[in-house]
Specification:
With 415 residues, this protein is of the alpha/beta class. Helix content is 37%, strand content 25%. It contains 15 helices and 20 strands. The protein has a 7-stranded mixed sheet, sandwiched between helices. The longest helix is centred in the last third of the chain and has 24 residues, at 331-354. Bound molecules: flavin-adenine dinucleotide. Flavin-adenine dinucleotide binds at residues 10-16, 33-36, 42-47, 127-128, 159-163, 165, 183, 273, 276, 292-294, 297, 300, 303, 305-307, 309.
């Protein structure tokens, strides 16, 4: 059987480039269609450790290691007088214990340049507009000069992120079970005040009176940082404020963050995204699979997006290789179910973040070190490690833990 097949990938974000690198490594022909030109801005800047293992497997780690990105060693949480840290060196799961905080424009371009160097063709400025399936798939592409052309491939990997090309064209979209939220964000020249801020950790700060509102502070290298807030869309609408005014107002209401940012230079326009959580009816079909955000996106709070995107790419590329070599595979069992182990685990923590039960667990006054290491592993992206009881039965175990914490501690919102 001829194992050499042509795979067309829609989108050159992390999901697309990782899938391309892995397929190319196994000697399959790959082409990526990317509607934009790189570098281009993208959100999703704080990475998790487990995606570093996947980047290494794909032969894409060394370019990232050489790029002087800010090393990340954990996550810190603060709310009123409470502060808690998770150090990835204390992970339950064996694996990488550091990762990076990256400007995505630079990160995505490095990955794209490296896969081109490895022999993958990327057609920038070409947008996938239509698709039809026969023996494989026929794509209709639109170039920037307005010209259309057809392209035939044996298989399509949709890594189009928020473009969600196949979910839209094939009517696969499902509403997310998560509430509609808005993120408002920018990059700053940080000049952090002398209050200790560990640059090697993402800082998540909860608003003092509304626990549904939280801020991220993601330090980059060279004194710059990403700062953003997530608010319920209903609150944004009721505020009658422009996005930048609302961001500034909410920061002022949050003393620890206001103090941290008091000398920062706000030199970049404010950006906003709303309703980014999304779901789909299926992750695969006879001639396609959905990767990364084109499949499902939960929420930014635990920085899981790029990690899930890269994991989906690794799983799909491995399955495709085996299929092209003649194996008959059950994609539901080998792709959807496997990918969903991690997604469902993160979902448990996201849902319980917004109902505050996870916030109460995070700030518990005397955490059990073994349990903390298991939770820490999930926050480090090892959400597919089924040896971790908090992965394997995430909802059941989480509820057990949250009930114990609640019984032994007052709700932190009352303190
Ligand atoms: P993308 O990176 O979005 O790439 C998709 C590519 O497809 C784009 O380059 C696009 O131009 C291209 N494309 C789209 N349509 C077409 C088309 N029709 N034809 C050709 N090309 C097309 N994740 C983290 O890991 N850490 C974080 O700290 C984090 N913070 C976040 C904060 C917010 C507010 C939000 C909303 C998300 C955050 N995420 C974070 C999630 C992260 O942004 C995504 O999960 C991640 O970028 C998904 O990668 P991807 O490769 O699937 O898609």
């Amino acid at each position: 059987m001829n194992a050499k097949k042509l795979v067309a990938i829609i989108g050159a974000g992390p999901a697309g480039t990782v899938a391309a690198a892995l397929l190319k490594k196994n000697n399959h022909d790959v082409i990526i269609f990317e509607k934009q030109h790189f570098p281009r801005f993208s959100i999703g800047e704080s990475l998790l450790c487990s995606c570093i293992d996947d980047l290494e497997q794909a032969g894409l780690l060394s370019v990232i290691e050489q790029a002087n990105f800010q090393i990340k060693k954990g996550a810190a949480f603060q709310k009123n007088n409470h502060y808690a840290e998770f150090n990835f060196s204390e992970n339950f799961t064996k694996g990488k214990d550091t990762t990076y905080q990256v400007e995505r424009a630079k990160f995505d371009k490095l990955l794209a340049d490296e896969v081109v160097r490895q022999g993958v063709e990327i057609r920038f400025g070409e947008q996938v507009e239509k698709i039809s399936f026969g023996q494989g798939a026929d794509l209709t592409l639109r170039k920037e000069n307005g010209q259309y052309y057809q392209f035939h491939a044996d298989f399509i990997l949709d890594a189009s992120g928020y473009g969600r090309v196949l979910p839209r064209l094939l009517n696969l979209e499902l509403p997310s079970t998560l509430a509609t939220r808005r993120a408002i964000f920018t990059h700053i020249d940080d000049h952090f005040s002398d209050k200790p801020l560990v640059r090697e950790k993402i800082l998540i700060t909860t608003h003092p009176s509304n626990p549904e509102i939280w801020f991220w502070t993601i330090p980059f290298s060279a004194g710059r940082s990403s700062v953003g807030v997530v608010v319920p869309e209903s609150l944004f609408n009721e505020s009658n404020l422009a996005t930048d005014a609302l961001l500034q107002k909410l920061i002022k209401e949050t003393p620890s963050l206001n103090n941290l940012l008091r000398d920062s230079h706000w030199d970049t326009p404010i950006n906003t995204l709303v309703g980014y959580s999304a779901n789909v009816k299926t992750l695969h079909g006879e001639y396609f699979a959905l990767l990364g955000n084109a499949a499902e996106f939960l929420d930014p709070v635990f920085s899981s997006g790029v990690t899930i995107a890269i994991r989906s790419a690794s799983l799909a590329a491995e399955l495709l290789h085996r299929q092209f070599n003649g194996e008959t595979l059950d994609w539901e069992e080998n792709y959807s179910k496997k990918l969903n182990i991690g997604i469902n685990c993160f979902r448990t923590y996201v849902e319980n973040w917004y109902n505050q039960r996870f916030q109460n667990v995070i700030y518990h006054h005397s955490p059990d070190p073994k349990i903390k290491a298991m939770i820490c592993s999930i926050l480090a992206g090892y959400a597919w490690d089924i040896n971790n009881p908090f992965v394997n039965e995430s909802e059941y175990r989480f509820n057990w833990l949250a009930d114990i914490c609640q019984a032994s501690q007052q709700d932190i919102n009352n303190e």
